[in-house]
Amino acid sequence: MENLLSRKSLKITGLLICIFLFMIAFVLSVAFGQTAIQLQTAFDAIFHYDESNTEHVIITTSRMTRAVIAAVVGANLAIAGALMQALTRNPLAAPDILGINAGALFFIVFSAAFFSVDSLSSYMWIAFLGAGVAGVLVFFLGSLGRDGLTPIKIVLAGAAITALFVSFTQGLLVIDEQSMQSVLFWMAGSVAGRSMDMLLPVLPFMLGAGLITLFLGRSINIMMSGDDVAKGLGQRTILIKATIGIIVVFLAGGSVAVAGSIGFVGLIVPHIVRGLVGPDYRWVIPFSALVGASLLLFADVAARFVIMPQEMPIGVMTAFIGAPFFVYIARRGLSKND
Predict the structure, then answer these.
(1) 8-332 belongs to which CATH class?
(2) pLDDT at 1
(3) Burial, 6: exposed, middle or buried (Cβ in 10 Å; 0-12, 13-18, 19+)?
(4) CA gyration radius for the chain?
(5) How far apart are CA 76 and CA 255, in angstroms?
(6) What is the predicted pLDDT for the residue at 2?
(7) At a CB cut-off of 8 Å and minimum separation 6, what does 87 contact?
(8) 321 falls in which pLDDT band (50, 70, 90)?
(9) Is the distance from CB of 269 to CB of 292 less than 8 angstroms?
(10) Cα distance between residue 69 and residue 258, in whole Å
(11) I need a labelling partner for 84 at 20 to 30 A (CA). Which of 14, 43, 51, 138 fits?
């Protein structure tokens, strides 16, 4: 697949354009909503805050937080999807497709139902644990048989684990619906009503994982050439794969802990980015972060107006875009990774 931005100068220009689009998406997320606020007012609230101005208070206490969370979660899910597609060499790999999100969500619901856990910091560790357990199960099931881990087997294993955890989660809601009210908003996948208190506990892990990923681009490129070639070049493939797996757990698990299960961002964005810059992960990772953040911000803005005066969960908006894209990628062939 030929990329549009083939030269380094074009990629740098594209990166600057993505930064500009991200800034536009962020401003629109802050300015637009049920309460109409002019763009100039949004800029004034950011750069010249006046605590006596009601609109400034709305922006800084609600919309700014919402935009920051949407940007962080979108970037994390996109990077996690890109890493999973590299690790599995499967174009359909993504945290929501391979059960990572479902595992994190189930563990949160299970802890709330049986152990009365209601601490945000506890949810963070529980989400990480659930994401890790789901990832291990998927790779274990996908590795069974004579052929070992193959693209089709890992997708089937991911679908099975996703269905398993979703069924368990729904079963818990039926058994003890009243005690589940505190975690129901995680089920929808949304950034509405979230606070910085929910983001701050997981933010260091997200930022740390994201920064490490920026330095893994060259190693991922070598790994993508095959294990034999990578080992011949002196790469410790097991260490690289384990590092990628841990990073995916932190990025996906942290995102679920903050915003619930938001699907298809990790599937869509890496394909868009590779169509722009090619398979070089030194460029794929930063582009994925910017495009993923922008996509979720734009989706959140759209979700506010589709069924006004109510808001549609952002997970529904991403599914509306992502489901046809999933079918398209599947029809191209599971064994072909662009």
Answers:
(1) mainly alpha
(2) 47
(3) exposed
(4) 20
(5) 7
(6) 57
(7) 93, 241, 244, 245, 248
(8) confident
(9) yes
(10) 8
(11) 14
pLDDT tens figures, 119-157: 777 888 898 899 999 989 998 888 887 777 777 788 888
Q: Which residue type occupies 150?
A: T
Kindly tell me the sign of the dihedral angle through the C-alpha atoms of 77, 79, 81, 83. Answer: negative
Nearest to 191 by CA among 320, 26, 331: 26
> Token pair of 186, please?
């995680």
- Helix (H), strand (E) at residue 317: helix 314-332
Q: Which amino acid is at 34?
A: Q
Structure tokens at 55: 């609109």
List phi, psi (to 5°) of 195. -125, 165
Query: Contact 270/81 with Cβ under 8 angstroms?
Result: yes
Tell me the per-residue pLDDT of 277-303, one tens digit each, with 9 for 90 and over: 999 999 999 999 999 999 999 999 988
Residue 38 backbone dihedrals phi, psi, to 5 degrees: -70, 150
| pTM recorded for the entire structure | 0.89
Tokens of 266: 């990790």
For 274-303, b/e burial (b = at least 16 CB within 10 A) is bebbbbbbebbbbbbbbbbbbbbbbbbbbb
Q: Measured between alpha carbons, how far is 192 from 326 in angstroms, rounded to an integer?
A: 26
| Gap between the Cα atoms of 328 and 338, Å rounded | 13
User: What DSSP string runs through 134-195?
Assistant: HHHHHHHHHH-STT-S-HHHHHHHHHHHHHHHHHHHHHHHHHSTGGGGGGHHHHH---TT--
Average pLDDT, the chain: 85
Question: In angstroms, how far is CA 74 from the centroid of its own chain?
Answer: 5
Task: Give the residue from 137, 124, 337, 136 showing the smallest Cα distance to 241.
Answer: 136
Q: How far apart are CA 124 and CA 259, in angstroms?
A: 11
For residue 282, the one-letter residue type is R
